[in-house]
Design brief:
Layout lengths: L1 E7 L2 E7 L6 H22 E9 L9 E12 L3 H11 L3 E5 L9 E6 L2 H14 L6 H16 L6 H12 L8
Antiparallel strand pairs: 1-2, 3-4, 4-6, 5-6
Length: about 180
């Protein structure tokens, strides 16, 4: 909205011209709603994982690769929602997982593996807008591991051992 006073024959008139764009407050509210939606979506459908791969012929001294990733898995029917998350973060890839069992639709996976993207986009987002479920604990461990890797601790025997112990505490659910 644009406000100004117009002086005509010694009289001042207030002129109000509505903006064609949404106000900053409206944009902020919409953005916060979308951020809340992302947090809820990841709370329900996302996963923070760290895998280990043995590479006997690797140049790495310890012959193990530590592989952190942030993943959201959905059925094809929900592809647009996953694409919105990818667009928001501006990183990662969407992969198709064709199913050949008795399920009725293929799966898609949004995956962020690039350590720089994890450190500069994914981790800061979930630190600023925390998860509300038990997944929050997994995220905190995940973030710590990625930061340890950024310091090169995964390349040392002691660091790799610490990371392995931390990973054991992730993604464990008690079923009743």
């Amino acid at each position: 909205m644009l406000l100004w006073y117009n002086k005509v024959r010694f009289k001042y008139t207030l002129i109000i011209m509505p903006s064609k764009k949404a106000s900053g407050a409206d944009n902020q509210q919409e953005r916060l709603r979308f951020i809340g939606w992302i947090v809820g979506f990841v709370d329900g459908e996302g996963c923070f994982t760290v895998s280990f791969f043995k590479h006997p012929k690797s140049r790495l001294r310890l012959k193990w690769q530590v592989f952190p990733e942030f993943v959201i898995t959905q059925g094809m029917k929900t592809k647009k929602a996953v694409e919105k998350v990818k667009k928001y973060f501006g990183c990662g890839e969407i992969y198709l997982n064709k199913r050949h069992d008795n399920h009725h639709e293929h799966l898609i996976k949004y995956v962020v593996r690039n350590r720089e993207d994890l450190l500069t986009k994914i981790i800061p987002f979930f630190e600023k807008y925390p998860l509300l479920s038990a997944k929050k604990r997994d995220f905190l461990i995940f973030a710590r591991i990625v930061r340890m890797m950024n310091k090169g601790e995964h390349l040392k025997k002691n660091g790799l051992k610490k990371i392995r112990l931390m990973v054991r505490r992730m993604n464990n659910r008690k079923f009743r």
